[in-house]
Design goal:
Blueprint: E1 2-3, H1 13-20, E2 22-28, E3 31-37, E4 40-45, E5 48-56, H2 60-66, E6 70-75, H3 81-89, H4 97-101, E7 105-107, E8 113-115, E9 120-131, H5 140-147, E10 155-167
Antiparallel strand pairs: 1-10, 2-3, 2-6, 4-5, 5-10, 6-9, 7-8, 9-10
Bound molecules: flavin mononucleotide.
Flavin mononucleotide is lined by residues 21, 33, 35-39, 54-56, 59-61, 85, 88-93, 155.
Amino acid sequence: MVDVHPSKLTENVIDLIGKEWMLVSAGDESSFNTMTASWGSIGFFSNQPMVTIFVRQERYTYEFIENSDKFTLTFLGDGYRDALMTLGRNSGRDCDKIAIAGLTPTFTESGNPTFEEGRLVLECRKIFGQMMTAESFVDRECYEKWYGEGHGGLHKIYMGVIENCWIKE
Ligand SMILES: Cc1cc2nc3c(=O)[nH]c(=O)nc-3n(C[C@H](O)[C@H](O)[C@H](O)COP(=O)(O)O)c2cc1C
């Protein structure tokens, strides 16, 4: 993997997150977890490149993000749809879903989890975390559509400064 400045990325961020999807991972070598995510953003805040992710409290990964200073976003590229579905439909609480998905965990110099198969990895330092509230939805239809009866709980919003960005050449 080659270390690049995030400003050098030429990806279409909307498709990158919304169509390719990503793995949100946190923890350390002794204990970590990952999950598929397709909601989030990459942008600029606090005069630094940053990401925003949305994680429901019921996810096992939530516990690891809460207990870590950092998290990673791993993009796998073509050919990993089944793995992403496995990691997005099963909980690490119930099975060794990473082994089932056939991915190979690896750890950054700071000890954060990512995967050998990643084609783009962002290592992020948490700078903000806030639960969504029902009242903060200006668009009630959006709230009902995603958080109304029969849906999961509200997301927690995390913002993370991108401290490292690696791409596979
Ligand atoms: C395509 C896709 C996108 C997803 N995006 C998100 C997301 O942005 N936020 C979230 O909280 N869950 C999202 N999920 C659901 C989690 O990946 C899923 O609940 C997963 O099983 C959680 O695993 P865990 O309990 O091991 O953390 C998504 C699932 C899929 C399949």
